[in-house]
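Figure S4 source data
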Amino acid sequence: MVGTGTKAGELYKAPKGQVVLVEVPQMPFLVVDGLGDPNSEGFKQVVQALYSLSYAIKFMLKKSRGLEHKVGPLEGLWWVEGAEGMSFEELLSRRGEWSWTLMIAQPEALTPEDLERARAELRRKKGLEGLERVRLERFGEGLCAQTLHVGPYAAEGPTLARLHAAIAEQGYAIAGKHHEIYLGDPLRAAPEKLRTLIRYPVRKA
């Protein structure tokens, strides 16, 4: 496991096949919670709402304040109540029970009033489903271990096993939810080309 005094750009990087430690600070995010299969239409609507609001905010801040920023990747926290001891394959078969929180990082300059202006404009132009569920909040995880998975989500099992083993071998324990960061558009990329950063908060065991 490679340790790092984390710079901002390193939060969203990990060499394939390596596990790295990063320190994840509190940052503002657009956030929405849900329950159920990520292949559902409702899930896709929420993803569209998050991206649409993030880009509306980007253009609004540039026009109103001259602020430039890049829209961050989609991120997701995933868990299943009572899943302790379940295999990865069993978890895959129970997608309808998955709880999730989807997020996209935002600039520090964003205010609640900015979000409401962007939401009102999108509501007027597009009337997207899911817009009203999105909120602004700060989120941070502290010390985390992460690695890069390339390929379909359903093939994450070996990557997860390596990540869990590396965490344990270095004397750490998982201390938070399974966190995935989608480096690309998960609704458009071919399954074999998907790049997913998998992260867990950790603490000394």
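Figure S5 source data
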Amino acid sequence: MAIATFAAGCFWGVELTFSKVPGVLSTQVGYMGGHVDSPSYEQVCTGETYHAEVVQVEFDPEQVAYEALLTTFWQCHNPTTKNRQGPDVGTQYRSAIFYHDESQRVLAEQSRLELSKSAAYPQPIVTDISPASHFWKAEEYHQQYLSKRGMGHCAF
């Protein structure tokens, strides 16, 4: 089993998207990349902790390649908006890939470069690629939030 961690805006919809990928064994939402230990959702929402809302994906590399997860990541959000996804604004909504090993770093950087060269977006890609740091699991009510409510997406 392997772990991948992505930040692509509000973690509810991102979590639901990754949970549907064949080969993904489990997903958890939480916080990464900040400077406060054990942050609460309320703290993260201030933007002062600098944590991103993330989805940590446990996957079976024999069933789904990390590259396929990267494709899902790029397709489920707008990687050209700095600290923003749709109506959600703040550093907690930034686009980021947190890599867990050198192979993930290389593949993430290659995929970002290829997407940039493809001209798929009229604006530059601003996605940050950083080493994974401590994953702080979000409060239980955030876990599988949309699935628990029978929702297929976030309503804006």
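The longest strand covers residues 24-32. The chain has a mean pLDDT of 93.
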